[in-house]
């Protein structure tokens, strides 16, 4: 994973819920290779290729890998 990119509406969603700092911290853990810290996992069913990682106890970032190997975050999900 070289980069983590987000759709335009993701930052607006995070700012509205005061999650931006927690998201940036989770993103740094991923970029440094600390996958266990944010519970980076492949979502079921695995054939869809959707990965998620934990922002906090309540929210998860849903993402996929593009052809260049970058992680694209397309949705923030309320886990509860």
Can you tell me about this structure?
There is one protein chain. With 80 residues, this protein is an alpha+beta fold. It has a single domain (4-78), classed as YaeB-like fold (2-Layer Sandwich). It is built from 2 helices and 5 strands. The chain has helices spanning 8-16, 20-31; strands at residues 4-6, 41-42, 51-54, 59-65, 71-78. The protein has a 5-stranded mixed β-sheet. A hairpin with a 5-residue loop joins strand 4 (59-65) and strand 5. The protein starts with a strand and ends with a strand. The relative contact order is 0.25. The model has no long low-confidence stretch (mean pLDDT 95).
Q: Please name the CATH architecture.
A: 2-Layer Sandwich
Order of helices and strands: EHHEEEE
Strand content: 25-35%
Straight-line N-to-C gap: 28 Å
Major β-sheet profile: 5 strands, mixed
Low-confidence stretches: none
Spatial strand arrangement across the major sheet: 1-5-4-3-2
Whole-number total of structural domains: 1
CA radius of gyration is: 12 Å
CATH topology: YaeB-like fold
Q: What does the oligomeric state look like here?
A: single chain
Helices, by number, come to 2
- Tell me, rounded to a whole number, the average pLDDT: 95
CATH class: Alpha Beta
Structure in a nutshell:
This protein has 80 residues and is an alpha+beta fold. It has helices at residues 8-16, 20-31; strands at residues 4-6, 41-42, 51-54, 59-65, 71-78. It has a single domain (4-78), classed as YaeB-like fold, CATH 3.30.2310.
């Amino acid at each position: 994973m070289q980069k983590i990119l987000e759709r335009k509406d993701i930052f607006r969603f995070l700012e509205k819920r005061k999650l931006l700092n927690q998201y940036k911290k989770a993103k740094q853990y991923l970029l440094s290779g600390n996958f266990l810290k944010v519970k980076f996992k492949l979502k079921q069913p695995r054939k869809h290729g959707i990965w998620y990682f934990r922002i906090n106890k309540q929210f998860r970032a849903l993402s996929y890998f593009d052809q260049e190997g970058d992680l694209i975050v397309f949705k923030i999900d309320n886990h509860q």
